[in-house]
Write a structure and sequence with these properties.
Region (Disordered): 1-23
Number of strands: 2
Order of helices and strands: EEHHHHHHH
Radius of gyration: 16 Å
Number of domains: 1
Strand content: under 5%
Largest sheet: 2 strands, antiparallel
Distance between the termini: 44 Å
Length: 131
């Protein structure tokens, strides 16, 4: 499907294209890219390339345009942030760290990834930043 992203609004103008675009960004965030603890740790060239390749395979989109490429990266950032928020919300449901680690949410790719995020959520540095 051809998708024309309008850099001035950060997404496609067409409702149908915008829906497909958002869905692909969600797939990339959930299934293709590793979950990043902090976005500043992401090497856009190396870490995002599998996601960019996935989008190119599934959509006809001009990622050579710097404005379009920026929009895609911003959408992936927002989706990643939302996923971390949902994981943290799930983590906080449990009364103990061990109980949380043993109850991986269905939307987390792997137990290893979930345990890594649990360690982050339990760290004193994270608690100072978020509580």
């Amino acid at each position: 499907m051809k998708v024309t992203v309008d850099p001035s609004i950060g997404r496609p103008k067409s409702r149908d294209e915008s829906s497909k675009f958002s869905s692909q960004i969600g797939v990339v965030t959930r299934d293709v890219l590793p979950l990043q603890v902090r976005w500043k740790d992401v090497d856009e060239e190396k870490d995002l390339q599998p996601g960019i390749d996935h989008i190119k395979i599934h959509m006809d989109i001009n990622l050579d345009d710097p404005g379009v490429n920026h929009c895609v990266i911003v959408r992936v950032q927002a989706s990643s942030r939302q996923k971390r928020y949902r994981l943290h919300k799930h983590y906080k449901k449990y009364s103990s760290h061990e109980e949380a680690k043993n109850n991986k949410p269905s939307f987390c790719a792997s137990q290893e990834n979930w345990e890594e995020m649990c360690e982050l959520f339990a760290s004193p540095k994270f608690k100072v930043m978020h509580y």
